[in-house]
Amino acid sequence: MVDIKISTEYLDVEFLGWSKLWAIRSRLEIPLASIKNVRADGVIPKGLNIRVFGTGFPGVISAGMFTDFKRWAFFDLRSDRTNVLILELSGWKYEVVAVEVKDARVAAERISNAIAGGVGVSKWSERQSPNTG
User: Fold this and answer.
1) Residue 11 domain-assigned?
2) Residue 76 maps to which CATH number?
3) pTM score, two decimals?
4) Is 11 in contact with 121 (CB distance < 8 Å)?
5) Which H or E run includes 5?
6) Domain around 99
7) pLDDT tens, 61-115?
8) Is residue 123 situated within a structural domain?
């Protein structure tokens, strides 16, 4: 699982607990300008199943960097795949980032508002959100 924080220019994805070990990362700092779409529908793009760096056990865990030799993705997913936030990116090192969060719908809404320049979203952390949990 990850914690999502939104600042004025970046989406900070902080890996929590065992996710740091499985993904071999502690955080991703994604420019908001690179996010072209954000979804909470749980539909993971197909074909990105070649693990380059991280941990992968089919049907159990996908964490780290994955590719199909055309696109690059970063996943932090477990078998139940609940509350999955999917970010489709452009002009950044990954084209897809899919991670499990506390409340994917709330996170997607906040990120969408930040991308659109919404008011009151300049700083938000999923851990501190009263709407979750």
Assistant:
1) yes
2) 2.30.29
3) 0.86
4) no
5) strand 2-6
6) 2-116
7) 999 999 999 999 999 999 888 899 999 999 999 999 999 999 999 999 999 999 9
8) no
